[in-house]
């Protein structure tokens, strides 16, 4: 039997600079720091609401996986590749001013409107190259 009452608890991102990544998510998307247990390596837990958390984990220098965005076949390099690439999506009420803020900060974006003509989307990368989407709905 499938799990009952399952909800998304958190997403984790590994980084060689968790402080830089935490600052980005706090400034751009309004995340707040949470109390974080001591795991014996660097971890920062952030929350966006009472039901969603982002766990930033210090990259293990012994890992053999590449940093930045990747998929099974190739790396995603441009925000325009993200609609069909790996990304996390958020919704905001102030979409137009949010996009203006990204541009003011020099963040490269790709914007599009869904076929329904109502929902606007902007795609971009965090400082470690993880794909992000923000939508108007």
In short:
By secondary structure, the protein is of the alpha/beta class. It contains two helices and eight strands.
Tell me what you see in this structure.
By secondary structure, this protein is of the alpha/beta class. The chain folds into two domains: 1-60, 2,3-Dihydroxybiphenyl 1,2-Dioxygenase, domain 1 (Roll), CATH 3.10.180; 77-137, 2,3-Dihydroxybiphenyl 1,2-Dioxygenase, domain 1 (Roll), CATH 3.10.180. The protein has two helices and eight strands. It has a four-stranded mixed β-sheet with strand order 1-4-3-2, with helices on one face. A four-stranded mixed β-sheet has the order 5-8-7-6, with no helix packed on it. Strand 7 (120-125) and strand 8 (131-135) form a beta hairpin. The longest helix has 12 residues, at 18-29. The model has no long low-confidence stretch (mean pLDDT 84).
């Amino acid at each position: 039997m499938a799990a009952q009452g399952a909800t998304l608890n958190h997403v984790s991102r590994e980084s060689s600079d968790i402080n830089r990544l935490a600052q980005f998510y706090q400034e751009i998307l309004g995340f707040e720091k949470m109390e974080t247990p001591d795991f014996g390596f660097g971890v920062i837990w952030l929350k966006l609401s009472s039901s969603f958390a982002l766990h930033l984990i210090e990259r293990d220098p012994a890992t053999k996986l590449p940093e930045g965005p990747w998929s099974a076949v190739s790396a995603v390099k441009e925000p325009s590749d993200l609609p069909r690439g790996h990304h996390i999506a958020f919704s905001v009420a102030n979409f137009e001013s949010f996009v203006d803020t990204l541009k003011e900060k020099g963040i490269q974006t790709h914007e599009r409107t869904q076929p329904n003509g109502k929902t606007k989307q902007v795609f971009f990368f965090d400082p470690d190259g993880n794909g992000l989407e923000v939508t108007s709905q």
